[in-house]
Amino acid sequence: MSPRVLSTDGVIAAARACRFTLVGVAPAAPLDPAPLLRWLAAGYGTGLAVMHRRVTERLDPRNVVPGARTVIALGIPYPAGDETAGQPEPPVIARYARGRDYHLAHRDRMRALRRSLLQMDPTLNSYACVDAGVAMEKAWAERAGLGWIGKHGLVVSRQHGSWFTLSVMVLDRSLDRYHQPHPRLCDDCDLCLRACPTGAFPAPGVVDARLCLSYQTVENHDSIPVALRAALAGRAFGCDACQEVCPYNRAGLPPGDPRQAARPLGLMSATEIATLGRDEFARLAAGTPMARAGYHGLRRNAALALGSDGRPGARAALEQLSRDASPLVSEAAQWALGHGR
Length: 341
Description:
It contains 14 helices and six strands. With 341 residues, the protein is of the alpha+beta class. It folds into two domains: 8-88 and 101-171, no CATH class; 198-238 and 263-339, no CATH class. The strands form two sheets. A four-stranded antiparallel beta sheet has the order 1-2-6-3, with helices on both faces. A hairpin with a 5-residue loop joins strand 4 and strand 5. Helix 1 crosses helix 4 (102-120), helix 12 (294-305) runs parallel beside helix 14 (327-339) and helix 13 (312-321) runs antiparallel to helix 14. It is elongated, with a radius of gyration of 21 Å.
């Protein structure tokens, strides 16, 4: 007996009922290996060990789920509006990271979606993951029609801009219809490439993680290269520079998921973050992406973010951090004191 074919409308309705705003479906055919293999060979993923593992599975969902037939691409928009209006100092945390950890949000909803799909077909087999797993979420989002991979390497939607996070689910069942791949609509615009403060784009759509401030402030747990430090002015976790200039991230986009709204730590200034106590950090960072940087890592970032801040409070915070017990933090603060205005 051939496997049951599922209703596309039914699958999409189930995903929306599980609070996924963006939903698209594509046949589980292999991805073109050339872009990933070129990126790895060039060393642009140095430091991102997960991208070097299980490459054959990353490129072909049939190597993850035997008999894979369908990939569901899923997206959750996050708030990117005026939630920071009225703040005495601008927040230094990238928008995606100000609220609940998106990994947790996607995993909770994917578990619920899996339960719904099993009600449709109890024998169905599936694999679901956010970005730490073995799936190329952005490539599948483009194939499933959610949007296109922009020149900044992020997926852009005409309805939601690029202010959303992604996950995928692979099924060993076919659907009765699939979405078409989304055309790329950047045309000759290169605002995002020119906005990058470190020149992290060796080519359109290609990101050198070693130069990307999002990588440096989140994944790098050692000292940040001196050549990149000045670019951290006003940034302590992640970087939205390339997204802020994108014409598709215009005013008037639909609001993000309110469950991803900013938490107190996400709206703090660099000075406030720099002077956090360990217990306070643990309490405020729990369940947010900022926990990934760790107590010393986030304060290291905040110290570098204050390096070009001429306000008296910033200098006082840096002087305090320059005597910190963590060599990572104290060295960053000493550098910032010597390179500030």
